Structures are given as structure tokens and as C-alpha cells.
Amino acid sequence: MDRPSQSYLTYALADSFQAQLITAACKGEAFDTETGLPDSIHREAQTITWFEHASDYMDNKWSKIAANSRRSTLEGMIAVTCALVRETRGAPGTEQLRDALRWAFLPSRKDVDQPEPVATTLR
User: Fold this and answer.
1) pLDDT band at 2; cut points 50, 70, 90
2) CA separation (Å) from 113 to 80, 86, 96, 117?
3) Contact at 8 Å (CB) between 96 and 121?
4) SS3 47
5) CB within 8 A of 33, min separation 6: which ones?
6) Average pLDDT estimate for 11-33
7) Contact criterion met (CB below 8 Å) for 121 and 100
8) Contact 100/118 with Cβ under 8 angstroms?
9) Residues near 31 by Cβ (< 8 Å), separated by ≥ 6?
10) What is the pLDDT of residues 50-91, one digit of tens each?
11) How many Cβ atoms are within 10 Å of 32's Cβ, its own excluded?
12) pTM above 0.85, yes or no
């Protein structure tokens, strides 16, 4: 089985990666059979954000569900996403965030440039 190889700019970078592999093996960590990487490194490479997951979910479900279900699913995704956002100084307000998410989660708008307020809110 061919495994993807990876090259490094310096010996130190390659040595550091090798040390990560040895550490994972010494800890008894499982290795992914496809990539040959320890699970901790493999998971990092496969991680997607909640926003990406929610957007993909909406894209996949949208055409398969009825109009009322679309509305309910959209509102549910907006509510969950707002609950997951940390409130920090300078963060957008709840209504501004809800409006931006409503715009972003609609599959029909995927190929359209986001309005500046939406893009700013979602950064």
C-alpha cells in the first residue's frame, strides 16, 4: 500500500515530526491504517469547524426536505451556532449574527459574494 510521503524544508522539521511519531508509539496510541499517522495527528488534519459542518449539512438536506422543515432546520442551525459562539469584546450582536448565519446557511447563496456586513460578521 502506498502511503503519501511528506518532505520538510529543514532537517529539524523532519526530526520534530519523527519525534511526534515516536512519542505517539511510546504512548501506545493507535495509528490510522490509511495514512500511517497516529490518531492525534490524523484527527488534527481531519478537523472541520462547526460552521463548515453546519453549512455542509444544510447543503445536503435542503433539496430533500419540505419548505416548513427547511425553515425549522435553518432556525435550529442558527440557534445552535449562536449558542456555540463565545461572547467576546467586539463580537457581533446576536441579531447581527443571526442575520449573517441566515444568509450564509442558505444553499442558494453559496455562489454569490457575501455582502460586506455578512462577511465581516462571519470572520
Assistant:
1) low
2) 25, 26, 18, 12
3) yes
4) coil
5) none
6) 88
7) yes
8) yes
9) 24, 25, 37, 38, 39
10) 888 898 899 999 989 999 999 999 999 999 999 988 888 877
11) 14
12) no
Whether residues 60 and 42 fall in one domain = no
**What letter represents residue 56's amino acid?**
D
DSSP-derived secondary structure for 71-98: HHHHHHHHHHHHHHS---TTPPPHHHHH
Is there a domain that residue 2 lies in? no
Looking from the CA of 92 toward its CB, the CA atoms found within 13 Å total 17
Residues 6+ apart with CB under 8 A from 8: 14, 17
Looking at the 3D structure of the chain, how many domains does it have? 2
In terms of Cα–Cα distance, which of 67, 58, 70, 53 is closest to 105?
Answer: 58
According to the model, what pLDDT value does residue 66 have?
A: 94
CB 100 within 8 A of CB 109: no
> Is there a single domain that holds both residue 36 and residue 62?
no
Do residue 40 and residue 55 come from a single domain? no
